[in-house]
Design a protein that fits this description.
alpha/beta; 12 helices; binds calcium ion
C-alpha cells in the first residue's frame, strides 16, 4: 500500500513508535553515564590515578569529591612511585575531610615527575587517618567482588593496575563500568593537530590493549579530542583561585608547586588559567554526558600507542566532541565551589 493511502492516524502512530524507540535507544545508549542507571543512590566509584605528575589528576580528584552522584570508595595509585602518589592522594583526601576513602597502592616502578613532592614532604601514609592498602590491586579486586552491584572505575593514567586486576580476576570486568581518559582519535595535543600516541596509552600500550578487549559492563573513554581542549580561564578560574575553601586552597597550592617545577612544559600562565584538565572529563563522564557527543567508534591500537579508527576494530564509546564546552566550564566551576 502506498504510504499516502495509509490513514494519517496510523502514520502518526508509527511515527510515535519510532520516536519512542529512538528515545529508548538514547536513554539506555551511548549518552547515558553509569550514574544515571541508579537515579537515587550515588554510584560507587574507584579512581585509578597517576596523581602527583601532571596536575590534572588533582583537579579530577577535587571534581570527583564534589560530585554528589559519585561515591568514592577507593583511590588506587598507578605507575612510578605509587607510595608518593598515595601520599598526595591521602593528604588531599584529608584536606577535603574524606578520610573514609581507602588509599590503595599499585605496584611501584621507577620514580619520575614528582612535582608535588614538597606538598607531602612532612606527610607520610602513616599520618592518614583512613585505611591504606599496600597491595592495591588485590584490594581493588576484593572491593569489586564484595560489592552488591556494579562499580564504576574511573581510570586517569596508564593502566597497569587494571591489566593486573583483569589478569588475576577476569570475571570482575562484567561488574565494572569503565570510564577512562585515554586515546587520541582525530586530534592530538593542540587544536588542529594530528592524532598521536596519547600519554596514558603510550605509558603502557599492552595494558590498554588488554583493557580495550575486556568484557566490561560498559566501556567509555574521553580521548584528547574532548580532553585536550579543557582548561578553566577568566572568571571561572579567578573565582576558584580566590576561594578560601580548604580543598580548593590545597588544589591551588599543588598547582603552584607543579607550575614552578614541571619540566615538560613552561607554565607562565598560573595567574590566568589552569593547565589542560584532561582527566576531569573522565570524571564528568561517570555521572553525565550532557554536554558531550559520545559515539560508538571501532578502534584498534598500533604498537606505538595510536588509537586508530578501524572498521574491523573494537566498537568503543568515545566522547568525540563537546556539544557545549562553555556550559561544562560553568558546571565544573559551580561544582568545585559547592554552589
Ligand atoms: Ca593522569
Amino acid at each position: 500500500m502506498p504510504s499516502s493511502r495509509i490513514p494519517s492516524c496510523v502514520r502518526l502512530l508509527r511515527r510515535g513508535v519510532l520516536l519512542f524507540l529512538a528515545v529508548l535507544a538514547m536513554s539506555g545508549g551511548l549518552n547515558r553515564a553509569p550514574a544515571q542507571d541508579m537515579a537515587d543512590e550515588p554510584t560507587p566509584v574507584v579512581l585509578d590515578t597517576d596523581i602527583g605528575s601532571d596536575i590534572d589528576d588533582t583537579w579530577a580528584l577535587a571534581h570527583l569529591l564534589r560530585s554528589p552522584e559519585l561515591d568514592l570508595q577507593m583511590v588506587l595509585t598507578a605507575t612510578g612511585n605509587t607510595r608518593y602518589r598515595g601520599r598526595v592522594a591521602a593528604k588531599f583526601l584529608a584536606t577535603a575531610g574524606r578520610t573514609d576513602v581507602p588509599v590503595a597502592l599499585g605496584p611501584s616502578g621507577e620514580a619520575a615527575h614528582e612535582y608535588q613532592k614538597p606538598w607531602v614532604r612532612d606527610y607520610q601514609l602513616d599520618d592518614y587517618a583512613g585505611p591504606v592498602r599496600e597491595n592495591g590491586v588485590s584490594a581493588f579486586i576484593e572491593l569489586v567482588r564484595a560489592a552488591d552491584g556494579p562499580i564504576t572505575l574511573i581510570a586517569i593514567g596508564p593502566l597497569p593496575n587494571v591489566e593486573a586486576a583483569l589478569d588475576r580476576a577476569p570475571g570482575i570486568a562484567s561488574k565494572i563500568h569503565f570510564v577512562g581518559m585515554q586515546g587520541s582519535i582525530d586530534r592530538g595535543y593542540g587544536a588542529g593537530s594530528d592524532p598521536v600516541a596519547e600519554a596514558n596509552v603510550k605509558g603502557d600500550v599492552d595494558a590498554f590493549r588488554t583493557v580495550l578487549r575486556a568484557d566490561w559492563r560498559s566501556f567509555a573513554i574521553a580521548p584528547l579530542d574532548t580532553a585536550d581542549p579543557v582548561a578553566l580561564t577568566g572568571d571561572h578560574y579567578q573565582k576558584l583561585k580566590r576561594s578560601d575553601d580548604p580543598m580548593l586552597t590545597a588544589l591551588f597550592a599543588n598547582y603552584r608547586l607543579w607550575a614552578d617545577r614541571v619540566t615538560w612544559t613552561e607554565v607562565g600562565y598560573f595567574d590566568e588559567r589552569s593547565s589542560t584538565l584532561f582527566d576531569v572529563v573522565a570524571v564528568y563522564m561517570a555521572y553525565s554526558r550532557e554536554h558531550l557527543d559520545v559515539e560508538a567508534i571501532p578502534i584498534t591500537v598500533t604498537d606505538d600507542g595510536i588509537t586508530r579508527r578501524d572498521e574491523d576494530g573494537i566498537p568503543t564509546r568515545i566522547a568525540i566532541e563537546w556539544t557545549n564546552l562553555d556550559a561544562f566550564y560553568g558546571h565544573l566551576t559551580r561544582r568545585l565551589l559547592s554552589e
